[in-house]
Structure formats: structure tokens, C-alpha cells
């Protein structure tokens, strides 16, 4: 289980699912139904159109709201985009950055991930920066190389002090691409190895701040495998896609965090 210096974090990524009314209903069901431990943070990431309504519905509860994505500029001629400032205005405290679906379906590069990470931190939101290898990369034995490149690409010239100064910190999510939405979860020992590698890289670049950066695992997390993943020393929480759309199942995952 997570180190005493790091709170557990369970985040639900609702992707492009649910209307405003459906999102509010799901958010309320999670806030009402989940027993959230004193040392656990819970975050949900609804579609952009539902952010403000969900944030309003969750006011006064222990569940917070995240954007799924944002642009690095505050405003401008960027049709279809939304800024970190706008996410904060809608009630978000967090934002996913560099999710593999953004990287692979919408061609987000490491350089874009970096600009977004900085924009999110500057707005006082916590970025949840996603990294992870494809199946071909894992089978080709380059998993750690990919993780190193994506980590370094995301932080660029940021320092550990920057990461902590701007906001409540920086969160990393290790999400092997081959495990996302496939029903194929990484073995807990493989997840731990990737998390330990990432923590080493964070320590290399940020020093002792590494002990405060939370690293989530994501990829086909379900109520039945959450506890085993959370039992790994460097797994500080979970980023949950499909299973976060079911309030009862997501509540069981939250409970696995203690
Ligand atoms: C995700 O969307 O980040 C994710 C991990 O999805 P799933 O849990 O459905 O694999």
C-alpha cells in the first residue's frame, strides 16, 4: 500500500460517456455510496459539457472533479479547445494530461504534454500526467526507455520545486496502452517494476520530491484486482476508465484504497 508520505488517489476517467444529467447522477451515486477513507482522494473526470454541473453537485462532498484534457493557452483562436483556466472556472481541481487516447488518437506529442502540464500547474490545478508503453514496445523490450522519454518530455525544464510550488503537486499515471480498455491488466509485479522505475527517474530529476509524487496505475482496473495493485509499494492509487462508470463497482475500488 502507498507510503505514509503519500495519500491514496482513486481517479475515474469517464471518457466520452454520459450526458450532463447522467454524469450528475453518477457523481451523486459515487459521493453517496462510497466510503472514502481519511487518507484517500477521489476524483472523477466527466465530459467537458458536464464539468460545471458535476462540480456543483459534488460541492461539500469528498469527491473532486478533473478535466480530461486542456489546451496550454488561457484563451484564443483554438476552436474546440478548453483551457486550464476554464477548467478551474468550471470547478475542476485536477486535469488528465497526455492520456494515451489523446496521444494515439489525437497525435499529442511529448512537447504538447509538457506545455499542458505547465499550463495546468500554473493554474493551480494538479496534472495527472499519463505515460505508458504500447504492446509492441513492451514486447520489444523498450518499456523503460519509453517511460523515461515520456517522463522527461512531460517535465521538460520543470523542477521539483516548480511541481510543488504551483499546485498540490504533480501526479503520474502509469497506463500501459495494451491494458487500457482491453480487460488485460498488468501483473501487479510488472506494474510495481514500472512504478519503481518511474520513481527512480523522478528522484533523478526532482530529488526527494519523488517521495511526494503519487504514481497511479491504470489499465483495466476492476473491483477484483484493485487491492492487489494497491498493495504494491510504489502504486499510490488507480486511474480507472470503464469500471468508474458503475457507481457500485467504483465504490468498491475506492474502498480497496482504505
Ligand atoms: C483509462 O481510461 O485511463 C483506463 C485505464 O481505462 P480502462 O480502465 O477502461 O482500461
Describe the structure.
The protein is an alpha/beta fold and 258 residues long. The chain has a single domain (8-256), classed as TIM Barrel. The chain has 11 helices and 8 strands. It has helices at residues 20-33, 51-58, 84-89, 100-105, 110-122, 135-139, 143-155, 160-166, 188-206, 226-230, 247-256; strands at 8-13, 40-45, 63-67, 94-97, 126-131, 171-174, 214-218, 237-240. The protein has an 8-stranded parallel beta barrel, surrounded by 6 helices. The structure holds phosphoenolpyruvate. Phosphoenolpyruvate binds at residues 13, 15, 175, 180-181, 218-221, 239-243.
Average the pLDDT over all residues and give the rounded result: 95
**CATH class (first level) name:** Alpha Beta
Give the full name of the CATH homologous superfamily.
Aldolase class I
- State the shape: globular
Q: What are the distinct ligands in this entry?
A: phosphoenolpyruvate
Q: Work out the number of β strands.
A: 8
Order of SSEs, N→C? EHEHEHEHHEHHHEHEHEH
From the N-terminal CA to the C-terminal CA, the straight-line distance is 9 Å
- Stretches where pLDDT is under 50 for at least 5 consecutive residues are none
Output the number of helix runs.
11
Largest beta-sheet details? 8 strands, parallel, barrel
Q: What is the structural class?
A: alpha/beta
List the strand order in the largest sheet: 1-2-3-4-5-6-7-8
| Fraction in helix | 40-55%
How many structural domains are formed by the residues? Answer: 1
Strand content: 15-25%
Amino acid at each position: 500500500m502507498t507510503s505514509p508520505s503519500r495519500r491514496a488517489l482513486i481517479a475515474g476517467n469517464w471518457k466520452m460517456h454520459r450526458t450532463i444529467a447522467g454524469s450528475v447522477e453518477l457523481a451523486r451515486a459515487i459521493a453517496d455510496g462510497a466510503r472514502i477513507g481519511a487518507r484517500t482522494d477521489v476524483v472523477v473526470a466527466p465530459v467537458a459539457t458536464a464539468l460545471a454541473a458535476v462540480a456543483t453537485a459534488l460541492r461539500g462532498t469528498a469527491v473532486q472533479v478533473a478535466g480530461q484534457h486542456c489546451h496550454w493557452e488561457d484563451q484564443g483562436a483554438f476552436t474546440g479547445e478548453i483551457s486550464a483556466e476554464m477548467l478551474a472556472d468550471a470547478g475542476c481541481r485536477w486535469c488528465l494530461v497526455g492520456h494515451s487516447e489523446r496521444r494515439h488518437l489525437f497525435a499529442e506529442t511529448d512537447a504538447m504534454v509538457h506545455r499542458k502540464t505547465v499550463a495546468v500547474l500554473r493554474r493551480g490545478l494538479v496534472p495527472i500526467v499519463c505515460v505508458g508503453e504500447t504492446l509492441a514496445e513492451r514486447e520489444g523490450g523498450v518499456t523503460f526507455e519509453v517511460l523515461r522519454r515520456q517522463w522527461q518530455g512531460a517535465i521538460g525544464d520543470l523542477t521539483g520545486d516548480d511541481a510543488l510550488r504551483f499546485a498540490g503537486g504533480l501526479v503520474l499515471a502509469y497506463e500501459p496502452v495494451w491494458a487500457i480498455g482491453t480487460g488485460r491488466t498488468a501483473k501487479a509485479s510488472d506494474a510495481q517494476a514500472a512504478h519503481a522505475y518511474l520513481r527512480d527517474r523522478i528522484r533523478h530529476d526532482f530529488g526527494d520530491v519523488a517521495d511526494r509524487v503519487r504514481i497511479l496505475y491504470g489499465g483495466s482496473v476492476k473491483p477484483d484486482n484493485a487491492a492487489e495493485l494497491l498493495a504494491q509499494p510504489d502504486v499510490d492509487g488507480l486511474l480507472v476508465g470503464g469500471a468508474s462508470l458503475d457507481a457500485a463497482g467504483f465504490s468498491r475500488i475506492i474502498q480497496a484504497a482504505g
